[in-house]
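Weekly modeling sync, notes
Attendees: S.R. (lead), two postdocs, one rotation student

Agenda item 3: backlog of single-chain predictions. S.R. asked that every request posted to the team notebook include the full sequence so nobody has to chase files. The rotation student volunteered to paste the first one in as an example of the format we agreed on. Action items at the bottom.

Example entry:
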Amino acid sequence: MKVLIVDDEFIAQELLKGFLESYDAIWNVAINGIEAVEAFQLALAQRDPYDLILLDIMMPQMDGHQALREIRRIEAEEGIGGTDMVKIAMVTALSDAKNVMEAFVKGSCGAYLTKPVYPEQLHRVLLDFGLVDEK
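Predicted structure, as returned to the notebook:
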């Protein structure tokens, strides 16, 4: 499983990396939305797309909502849709209805995790996305 972790907080990055180790996941890290979109585009160009993007909302330069919309725009331009779209889970401290609805409705994210994230929560998302089998 190839994962892009997008978070400007080092501790959050390390926590997610630690959780993903038990799944033999390969990961890259981006610290803002601009880097996330660039990493996504590069992976597509190399025909080695990400299986999952764990995307924070509050980041400098380009926030997670903007990055999510840009990734979905790129997929639409490339004719990528439905189950072929990258799985995206928002991982954020923001749990208010406005942010949750914006992520799901405007951005078509598939999951929303509120920090602090626990291994069981991430495992449930990976199961729901079909990226792992039940352990």
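Discussion: group reviewed the output briefly. The beta strands are 2-6, 26-30, 52-55, 87-92, 111-114.
Action items: rotation student to repeat for the remaining queue; S.R. to check formatting next week.
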